[in-house]
């Protein structure tokens, strides 16, 4: 806090934004001076919103949000916390019936100036002879002058600790002393290098002249300390108006929105941010014994996280913080001392629990509240109503949420979150569900950021309710989509969001794009999302007959066009098509369950395609190997045939790079790829023999491919493979005569030639215990029919949705 009242002039209270010492001093100064009016640094368009600060529902941190009418994305925030001096001044004025007004440059100008700056040609800005200097940090300069290497520590010593150490009796003394320091800084640094400071200060001086005509000199001004010397400067009205002439302007609307302590922090990118908003909030709310109260908070947090922290730890931490402050020559223990004490005493020297203290307490996750009477776009009001109806309270901290779509409330929550995603309001992000796609469960990760209010305002152009806006946005996105995959993904989102009016438009565009698109890669990218959509349609009782016809048609065209598309590919193209083959394989499995009338024919055609890909020499090796593996896993390729294909692929006449690509497709990136080699030593021997025969001059070329393939295996699998290779091939250790089941007849170390029934049965009691089935098991170890039926009723998989 800085600045001083000019003799015979208004009371100028220069402050540090979001400084609890400044806030406390401003409150004391206003109580002592009792001015007739209070002027505050902020956009004048917000004057009509100031009375809401006295509303019982208004709980800081909050922010004034200004956005350009017609372009809500062009927005700016003015955050205020409970410990912000401006907030204290506003509340004091409202409590005492004193007029309170904002005097900074209007948001209409600041928004237009920001837009104009962004539109400037980057080359023009780069070619400027005198680029704008970096704005000066007054607190940093004063701290460095005083011999401090940490500006926050200097601020605590000269301001915050004064408030907790009695301080002088004159509430204006600190304003006068620091005001002189700011004046000296302005003499050295001028306007500080910020291009807007001169314009802003000219406008504030004009507002001060207007206030003098109404209140004389009996009013107080609360503004950033840096501006006080400029407001004291003697300038003419004509000179100030000349600085404001020709400023760009847009029409702006303002409202109050909740803010968070996290967004007050400097690391969030906020220019006037502070390092420790949670700590400052604590200092402001604790007029006495702040260190003892803080240690109690830390102990409570760590106990909630199941760490042992006793009252003795709290006492010892307080003593250590005081001792550290004395050793460092500080008047009282500050944040650095209490943090060091917490690390040493409560965290046992570990930074892991200390990181939790920093996140939860030092920075904090407090989310403010604004009254219902605050202005808002209709879409925001509808969203707020739905959040309350569904008991989905916005929270600043990240949290996970599980939804059961069989419950009406959870299904409605899911629809709301999916509709917001279509509108670009990323409140929730889908997490990995416990079941497969198409189950009755969804997992979400929720976190509400203040910027989402801007996204809601932007989405307001699409409609006045979440449903109507999401519908209009989905229809527009479908018509503007440039690829088939975009349309199919949008169809999936429409089903998830339950937008029945948008779905016909999306389906019409989908059918048109699918009929015209001849690129097999595009079709392969589009099919998986269509298959998932059909599964979700089953879960959500949505009619997907038309979608099924389109999906079946796409699958047919892929089966026809895929083999020719797999020839003549480079390494990157082959890798991309290999991933598409995986996606199509999974999708056809889903389609077979979702569209039963085409199941058998679709499976047969896809099986024939895989056989063709596996046997054709002109197909890229990674795709041939992957096709063989998919057939083997599904039981449509005999072990003998798989070994024959591998032998051909690894024959001496095959280029080493092609052979390595085949191996990558066959055993790389697939679940159980390493175990296949562990259980079938014949396949392992083929790989080993090929690898030892690779010429030295080409070995370094294939090594990266092999490292990429085998590094994906678990360490235990790699260790077992190494042991098998070290021992060498053993007679009889093959999988021949096993009926196509990999490894069933192998005699690899650790595996018997036949199944040992008694040893296998011994595992059952442990499995029942892990699954919680002991209470349901009968005396013979079998699960009762009643328990089985109960588990069937509680299954997550919908009937008829497997595949």
Number of helices, counting only DSSP H or I runs of 4 residues or more: 36
Helix proportion: 55-70%
Q: Name the average pLDDT.
A: 80
Shape: elongated
Spatial strand order of the main sheet: 1-6-2-5
Oligomer: single chain
Number of strands: 10
Largest sheet properties: 4 strands, parallel
Poorly predicted runs of 5 or more residues = 1-6, 433-438, 731-751, 775-803
**Strand residue percentage:** 5-15%
Q: Describe it for me?
A:
The chain has 803 residues and is of the alpha/beta class. Helices cover 56% and strands 7% of the residues. It contains 36 helices and 10 strands. The chain has a 4-stranded parallel beta sheet, with helices on one face. A 3-stranded antiparallel beta sheet has the order 4-3-7, with helices on both faces. A hairpin with a 2-residue loop joins β3 (62-68) and β4 (71-80). α23 (520-539) packs parallel to α25 and α27 (621-633) packs antiparallel against α28. The longest helix is centred in the last third of the chain and has 24 residues, at 571-594. It is elongated. Mean pLDDT is 80; it is low at 1-6, 433-438, 731-751 and 775-803.
């Amino acid at each position: 806090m800085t600045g001083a009242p000019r003799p015979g002039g208004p009371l100028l209270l220069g402050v540090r934004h979001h400084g609890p010492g400044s806030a406390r001093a401003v409150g004391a100064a206003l109580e002592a001076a009792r001015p007739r009016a209070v002027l505050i640094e902020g956009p004048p368009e917000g004057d009509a919103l100031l009375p809401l600060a006295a509303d019982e529902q208004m709980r800081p941190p909050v922010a004034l949000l200004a956005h350009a009418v017609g372009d809500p994305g062009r927005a700016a925030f003015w955050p205020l916390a409970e410990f912000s001096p401006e907030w204290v001044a506003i509340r004091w004025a409202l409590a005492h019936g004193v007029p309170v007004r904002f005097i900074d440059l209007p948001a209409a100008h600041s928004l237009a100036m920001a837009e104009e700056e962004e539109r400037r040609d980057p080359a023009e800005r780069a070619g400027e002879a005198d680029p704008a200097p970096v704005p000066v940090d007054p607190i940093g300069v004063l701290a460095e002058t005083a011999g401090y290497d940490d500006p926050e520590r200097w601020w605590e010593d000269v301001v915050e600790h004064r408030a907790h150490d009695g301080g002088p009796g004159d509430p204006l003394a600190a304003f006068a002393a620091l005001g002189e320091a700011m004046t000296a800084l302005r003499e050295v640094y001028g306007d500080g290098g910020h291009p807007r400071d001169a314009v802003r200060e000219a406008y504030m001086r004009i507002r001060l002249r207007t206030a003098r005509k109404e209140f004389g000199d009996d009013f107080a001004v609360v503004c950033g300390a840096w501006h006080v010397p400029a407001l004291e400067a003697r300038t003419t009205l004509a000179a100030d108006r000349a600085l404001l002439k020709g400023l760009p302007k847009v029409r702006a609307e303002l409202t109050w929105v909740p803010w968070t302590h996290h967004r007050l922090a400097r690391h969030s990118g906020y220019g006037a941010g502070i390092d420790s908003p949670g700590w400052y909030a604590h200092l402001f709310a604790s007029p006495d014994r702040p260190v003892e109260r803080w240690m109690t908070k830390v102990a409570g947090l760590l106990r909630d996280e199941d760490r042992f922290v006793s009252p003795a730890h709290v006492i010892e931490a307080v003593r250590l913080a005081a001792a550290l402050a004395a050793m460092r020559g500080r008047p009282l223990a500050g944040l650095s001392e209490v943090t060091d004490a917490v690390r040493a005493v409560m965290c046992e020297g570990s930074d892991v629990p200390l990181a939790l203290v920093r996140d939860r307490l030092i920075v904090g996750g407090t989310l403010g509240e604004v009254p219902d009477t605050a202005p808002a776009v209709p879409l925001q009001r509808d969203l707020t109503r739905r959040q309350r109806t569904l008991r989905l309270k916005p929270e600043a901290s990240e949290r996970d949420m599980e939804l059961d779509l069989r419950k009406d409330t959870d299904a409605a929550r899911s629809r709301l979150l999916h509709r917001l995603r279509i509108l670009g309001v990323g409140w929730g992000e889908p997490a990995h569900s416990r079941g497969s796609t198409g189950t009755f469960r969804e997992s979400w990760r929720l976190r509400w950021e203040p910027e989402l209010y801007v996204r809601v305002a932007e989405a307001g152009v699409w409609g006045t309710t979440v449903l109507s806006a999401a519908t209009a946005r989905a229809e527009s996105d479908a018509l503007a989509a440039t690829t088939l995959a975009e349309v199919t993904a949008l169809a999936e989102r429409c089903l998830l969001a339950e937008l029945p009016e948008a779905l016909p438009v999306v389906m019409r565009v989908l059918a048109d794009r699918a009929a015209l698109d001849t690129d097999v890669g595009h079709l392969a990218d589009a099919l998986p999302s269509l298959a998932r959509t059909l599964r979700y349609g089953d879960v959500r009782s949505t009619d997907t007959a038309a979608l099924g016809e389109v999906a079946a048609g796409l699958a047919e065209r892929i089966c026809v066009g895929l083999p020719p598309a797999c020839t003549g590919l480079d390494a990157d193209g082959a890798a991309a098509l290999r991933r598409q083959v995986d996606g199509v394989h999974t999708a056809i499995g889903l389609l077979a369950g979702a569209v039963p009338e085409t199941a058998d024919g679709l499976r047969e055609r896809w099986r024939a395609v895989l056989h063709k890909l596996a046997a054709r020499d002109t197909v890229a090796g990674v795709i041939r190997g992957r096709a063989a593996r998919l057939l083997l896993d599904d039981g449509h390729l005999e072990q003998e045939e798989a070994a024959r294909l591998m032998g051909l692929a690894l024959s001496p006449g095959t280029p080493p790079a092609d052979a390595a690509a085949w191996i990558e497709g066959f055993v790389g990136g697939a679940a159980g790829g390493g175990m296949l080699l562990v259980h079938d030593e014949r396949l392992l021997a083929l790989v080993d023999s090929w690898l030892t025969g690779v010429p030295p001059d080409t070995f370094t070329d294939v090594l990266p491919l092999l490292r990429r393939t085998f590094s994906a295996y678990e360490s235990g699998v790699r260790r077992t493979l190494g042991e098998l290779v070290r021992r060498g091939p053993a007679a009889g250790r093959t999988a021949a005569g096993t009926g196509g089941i990999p490894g069933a007849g192998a005699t690899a170390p650790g595996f018997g030639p036949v199944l040992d029934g008694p040893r296998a049965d011994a595992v059952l009691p442990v499995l029942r215990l892990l699954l919680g089935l002991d209470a349901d098991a009968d005396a013979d170890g079998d699960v009762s029919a009643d328990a089985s039926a109960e588990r069937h009723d509680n299954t997550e998989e919908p009937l008829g949705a497997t595949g």
